[in-house]
Each structure stands twice: as C-alpha cells, then as structure tokens.
Amino acid sequence: MIKGKVWKFDNDVDTDQIIPSQYLLLPTIEEMKHHTFEPIDKDFSKKVTPGDIILGGENFGAGSSREQAPAVLKALGISAVIAQSFARIFFRNAINVGLPVIICKEAYNHIDNHDIIEIDVVDGVIRSEKDKSQFIATKLPEHVMKILAANGLIEYLNKQ
Amino acid sequence: MGMTIGEKILARASGKATVCPGEIVTAKVDYGMSNDGTTHLNIDIFEKKLKADKVFDADKVVFIVDHNIPAESYKSAEVHKKMRRFAQQHKLRFFEGTGVCHQIMLEEFVSPGQLIVGADSHTCSYGALGAFGTGVGSTDFTAVMKSGEIWLMVPETLRFNLHGQFKPGVTSRDLILKILGDIGANGAAYKVMEFGGPALENMTIDDRIVLCNMAVEAGAKSGLFEPDEHVVEYVKSRGREPVALFTSDPDARYEAVYEYDLGALEPMVAIPHSVDDVHPMTEYSDVKIDQGFIGSCNNGRIEALRLAAQILKGRKVHPYVKLLISPASNQVYLEALAEGLVDIFIESGAIMLNSNCSACWGSCQGVIGEGEVLLSTGTRNFKGRAGHPNSSVYLGSAASVAASAITGKITDPRGFLAHE
C-alpha cells in the first residue's frame, strides 16, 4: 500500500520538465535531484516530501529517453507516479529504476493538488482520503512487483 | 495475415517466422548506441550495479560524444573522460566530436533490416534506411551492452501514404510538423509510424530521415520506410550491404491509415511549448525572434543547408538576431565547405558551430536567455528546452529559419525563393 500527498501536473509533461538537459551530465542523481521539475516550479525539490505521489494527465514522461527523469523522482522519495497514460520510454525506465507507475484514466479529474490518496498497487485501486472516492487503476503484474520490491531491474537480476 | 516491415524486422531479430502486435519478443540487436547525454549512468550501472566485466560484442556497441562536445564545463569533461576510458578498456566503436550520434550511425553503421537500440529517443531515425531503431533508457541499454538482447513488445503500426511533391520552400520538415499537429504528441504512442506511397520516388534519404527522426515526438516506438534503390545505393556507397530488404505485405495489418498530399502543404511552425501545437507559418509572422538555429539530428544535413544557403546568399542576418548553424556531422560540414555554403553563411553573418547537438538541447553553446525566442530546426520546443525556463522555442524548417533570421521575425520562406 502506498499513501501520500499528490502533486498534480498537466498533460504531456515531458522529461525536459522533469529534469532539464543542462543538469543531465551532473555526476550523480543525488546532485541532479535538486533540479527536479525546475522549469515548472523551481522550488519543487524543496517542497516535496518522501512518500509524495505525482499525478499526471495523458502522455506523462514524453520526449527524451533520459532515465535521469524517473531516477530523480525516486531519489526525492516519490512513492509512485499515476497518469492517464505514459510515454513509452519513461514507463519502462520507471519500472527499471524501481518507481511504481500506475495508469488510471478516472482519478485525474477527481483528485486535486495536495490531496492525500492511497494506492493499492496489487488490487489496482486508488482511494482519495478527502471524500473516500475510489478509482480503478492498472494492477501491476507480479514480475513488475518483484522488480519494484528489489528497487529496480538490475538489483532484481543481481538477486537471481 | 501479412506482416509490416517493422514486424518482419522484429521477427528476424527474434528468430521467429512471424510476429504479431502485442506479442513480446526477445530480440538480438545489431548495434547498441549511446551518447554523452546518458552514458555515464550506463557505465555506473554496468560497472557498479551489474558488476559486468565485458560487453557482448565490442564491434556492436557504439559510444558517441555529441551532446556537450567540446565540453562546456569540467563536469561534462569528466563524463567524456569516463566514456573514453570505458570505450578504450572495452575496445568499443568510439566517436568524439565528429557529428550528432544519429547522423554518425546513419553514415557508418545502419543497414536495412537491422534492429538498433539507442540510449537516445531519436534512434527512431534509422527507419529512413529500413532499419528498426528505438530509444531506451540507461538500464535497458546496459542490459543490451551485456547481453546483446532486449525484450520488446511488437507494436501496432500506423501507415502514412504520401502523395504528390513538395512545392518550393516546403520540405519534409513541414510535413512531419503537420503530421504531429494532426495526430498529437501521443498520437502514435507505442506504435510504429510507417511511411510510404507514390511520393517516395521523389523523396531523398535526407527527407526520409527528417520524418522518421521525429516519430518519437508522436510517442512512436519507431518510424520506418521500406528500403528502395536509393537506400541500397546509400548504404553500398558507404561500403555496407543491406542485411535484409523487407517490405510490408499487401495484406499487412494497420491500426490506421493516413493520406497526405505533399503538394497541398505550406510552411509550418510548432509554437511553444509543445511539438503538436502546429500552425501555418503565416499565422505567426509577427513573432520577433532573437536567435535562429539550423542543425540537429532532424535538420542539419546537406539538403537543409543548401536550402538555407539559397535564401541567405547575398543577404544579411538581421543585426539583432543570431543565426547559429551546426552541420549534423563533419562529413556534412565538409560537403557544405566544398559547395561553398559555409562562405555564404559566414558572409551573411551566421555563426558556424561544430557538429554537435548544439542549440537543440539547452546544455551546450547557443542557449537562450529569459524571455528570448528561438526559431529552431531542432527536435523539440519543450519549455526551457534551449535555455532559460522562461524562454520560447518555435520549430520550423531550415528555409524558414534562414528567412526569419534575415527579417528578425517568423517569416514564410517562399517569398525569398520566388525571387531566385
């Protein structure tokens, strides 16, 4: 079960918004994470708290193949990203770095910025604390859950 | 049921007679390519997390330093050092500063029928030569470096039938912008964009690269053309042979089919901050620009430079506009020099840059300041893409950038060509 505060974003959030190009060659993700979402909100990395949840519209993570994008979200302690749909490369990268990505069409129009929500990733249910409303989301299959539990694909493979 | 060219390439790569959309295959890659935008992560994962000691085949892993070359900071220089050290240690194919990675791949490695995985989203460009190129992140790429394999879902295919011929001043760049505007930034999500139709006989390799390159801007897994005699000639002239000349079967299944008449197109512009916010250029003719950029893996090849030179010849760049030109590779640069194009550019007041990713991505020379406007032949116009978070990028063709750099505002290039 994942529970946290929501940071809500628009449609088509691209990876240049998540982590701008000029920070990609910093030596570590720890150094990069302070610049997360800088073009949208330059203080995002200071305001976010571990466990918080990102909520996006359609096509979240569009654009560049940079794995730095899900990696900085994970490094800030983001517990999951929910979106109406994901861009292909971001979706795969997120699972590979151990960041849960959940597809839900319905929740976006009912959940507001800073709402507290709960995600049951096994059963595929999102619950809003403010009005107890529930939304059906994609269930993450068992093998993806194992990758997430291991904290990423490489860690998972190393354990095999 | 017949197969598309994309399905045939994935079937070959996974050792199967047939594949169908939705099927997950484990495919052998012909090349893996990675550049300095992300390779430091790949190397860290390879050495520290995966604890691997060798790559699957040193001749099939290509490292290209193109994003921040020459280094604009000592931190980037450290990334380049790390790539150089790893490439030397593992005897990889290594290129540093000779061009944008996709242009180098097309010039040196790509052949019809191949599957190529790149740690860069614009790897989809290779479909221009009938190869299946697709972008992945660092973890997936590192797994390819070690195993030579990747699992992929066989995508659905969208077919784009192209008819007619471009009018003067209108290019494949305008066509791909028009398509992006029509289908949207996720209009081809997870799918292949397959281009074909009678217009192909008049479409050059450069034209085709421009279309495939931006397939990812519609969310596509790849863009593809069926290879024809132009493609065979292109690869043979570079000392390579096609791996396989696949074509789509007449009864291949398409999720949707679109028809485009090239002769009906006009110069297009994508306005900030989305690649699918596309309009006829004439509707934005009052927008002042601070900088123009001609280059990138999308539009820095010789035909784009020739078109720009045709417009800039004997004219001057507006005194308060900077026009940056970066040929997509040193081969292209040498061609431009031999044809006298560089003389025209410099005489017009343009600034020549080395072959790199340049102003297309706001991390090396050519970034723009707060409130500034760039008209670019680059791949993206996302917010802050080319510099300050509060700056604006418009996307247009090389002809449009050249014309606009002269007038200082967004300008339909057709007026400049009419006087030739």
Write a short abstract of this structure.
The complex is a heterodimer of chains A (160) and B (420). Chain A has 160 residues and is α/β, with parallel strands linked by helices.
What does this structure look like?
The complex is a heterodimer of chains A (160) and B (420). Chain A has a single domain (2-159), classed as Aconitase, domain 4 (Alpha-Beta Barrel), CATH 3.20.19. Helices cover 28% and strands 19% of the residues of chain A. Chain A contains seven helices and seven strands; from the N terminus they run βαααβαβαββββαα. Chain A has helices at residues 15-18, 29-32, 44-47, 68-75, 88-97, 142-149, 153-159; strands at residues 2-8, 53-56, 80-83, 101-103, 116-120, 125-128, 134-136. In chain A, strands 4-3-2-1-5-6-7 form a seven-stranded mixed beta sheet. In chain A, α4 packs across α5 (88-97) and α6 (142-149) crosses α7 (153-159). Chain A is globular and about 45 Å long. In chain A, 52% of the residues are buried. With 420 residues, chain B is α/β, with parallel strands linked by helices. Chain B has two domains: 5-261, Aconitase, domain 3 (2-Layer Sandwich); 269-418, Aconitase, domain 3 (2-Layer Sandwich). Chain B is 31% helix and 19% strand. Chain B has helices at residues 5-13, 39-49, 74-90, 101-108, 138-147, 172-183, 205-213, 229-236, 296-299, 302-312, 330-338, 341-348, 398-407, 414-418, and strands at 24-28, 31-35, 61-65, 93-96, 115-118, 132-135, 149-153, 157-163, 192-196, 222-225, 256-261, 268-270, 278-280, 291-294, 322-325, 351-352, 373-376, 392-395. Chain B has a five-stranded parallel beta sheet with strand order 4-3-2-5-6, sandwiched between helices. The longest helix of chain B has 17 residues, at 74-90. The N and C termini of chain B lie far apart (51 Å). At the A-B interface, α4, α5 and α7 of A face α2, α3 and α5 of B.
